[in-house]
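ERR on first pass: missing label on line 2. Operator R.T. fixed the label and resubmitted. Corrected input:
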Amino acid sequence: MIQVEGLTKRYARNVAVDHVSFSVEKGQIVGFLGPNGAGKTTTMRMLTCYMPPSEGTAKVAGFDVIDKPLEVKKRIGYLPENPPLYPDMEVGEYLRFVARLKGIPEKEVPGRGEEAARRCSVKDVWSKLIGKLSKGYRQRVGLAQAILHNPDVLILDEPTSGFDPKQILETRDLIRGLGGDHTIVLSTHILQEVKAMCESLIIINKGKIATSGRLDELTRSNGAVLELSAPQGATAEQITSALSAVAGVEKAGAVDDGGLWRVDISTAPGAEIRPQLAQAILAQGWNLYRLDSASLSLDEMFLRLTSAAEEVQ
Amino acid sequence: MRNIITIARKEIQAYFQSPIAYVLVGAYAAMFGYFFWSLVYFFVRASMQSQMSGRAMPMNLNELVIRNLLGNCGVLCLFMIPMLTMRLFAEEKSRGTMELLLTSPLRDWEILLGKWAGAVTMYTSLLLFSGLNMVFLFAYGKPDWKPLAVGYLGLILQGAAMLALGMFLSSITQSQIAAAFSTFVLLLMLWVFEWMSNMDQNTLTTVLTYMSLLRHNESFIKGVIDLKDTVYYLSVSFFGLFLTARSLESLRYRG
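pass 2 clean. output:
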């Protein structure tokens, strides 16, 4: 549904988005994750034809954002970080205005406005001034605006920022409910959000894609935690060197944890080397107390990816 | 076309949702009412004096009242236009609603034509509202309606040109005050260029005089549709719209 290749946005002094490539299948919910200022909003603005890319191409539903912006815009619903609302308009009036902007035939305008309001549960404030609404209601009116013309692709920039916990849960349900019919790209810097809503994930940092893939694949096991007892006088070096010798181990670290040694081992994602580890330990004549696979949590992965890139710079 | 109407309708509604429309209608009615009253008062006094003197001179309503009134309207524009144009783009930009307009299936020129059409409609209705005063002239006198209509046409053309320039200045800033003030200064400059016509004739003074916005209205106020002046107003409007389109484009590139 979305194909992005080598997308780049250069400003006079910096590069906001640097050769980003990814693609999103129809019906997927993709989380766009990154620290503030990583280039999430800029990428979204290029996808929605708000600004043209400096380099590279992006296609939405088969239409290029540069050659066929009108076709792309018809198929995209966009909720910017600050919902684009007119405080002096009533909710109903605003949704009817948006319906006309999106090119919905005049006789369907009131119906479509009401349906969007119902789906985003803002029907009860239909004839209130937008300026008088609470932040949560405003955000949902913004969401109603984005889904009003039933777009193939929904692009949501931090859709739950500023919500209270109940509103966050409701909005997540709403967005999950929209997935399937719609392809959704949502940006956030809140990790729980991604876990709760998204099937796949793109982590972006300093304008570059740090990693991307399905959520379950990215967070799948990539190491082991084990506890063992070794004879008196054994040193941490002895233990780590013995375990590092096992094929597949990238890094091992041992600490004395009150009589038992606790060892953290990292491997390539998805590699399963627990049997080999067990054999290696027994071959040393040590006692094995615990052997678990460890998986990197999203938080750790995020921190590792975003700070690793910092060190390189 | 429908897109242009949608935007224009929204702009007109926005004038009435904010106090701007009411302030303008009130202020315009008060100023126009005063001009009308003082000119009619002067006309009545003068015609009475001419009758008392024994040799009654024929006095022309069109020449003495309507021309001066329309001339004053042109000057009033200077103060009204910035209030009509200041929010057109500056407000959308500061509220972030520009993102809605620019990501909806509209072409840039539809957005700016819609906004301009909305502002011109608002301005024209203000102007025609002042026509209520004219009813009295027709009730108690016999003015010629044709020069009056041409005069209004001239004011509408002049307003459309000024609104296009104001819209451009609103599109380059987020601050409504900055937009209003720069529009006011620009229109004032274009007005005072007229003074150059009193100086000695050289290329500079001729060009500056020709650029003066109000000067081109003189023929319309006299009841003459001058092609040269019509072309002037239309080209200034086009120039303003063109600059606004360029400014929207640069907004897209700069984000």
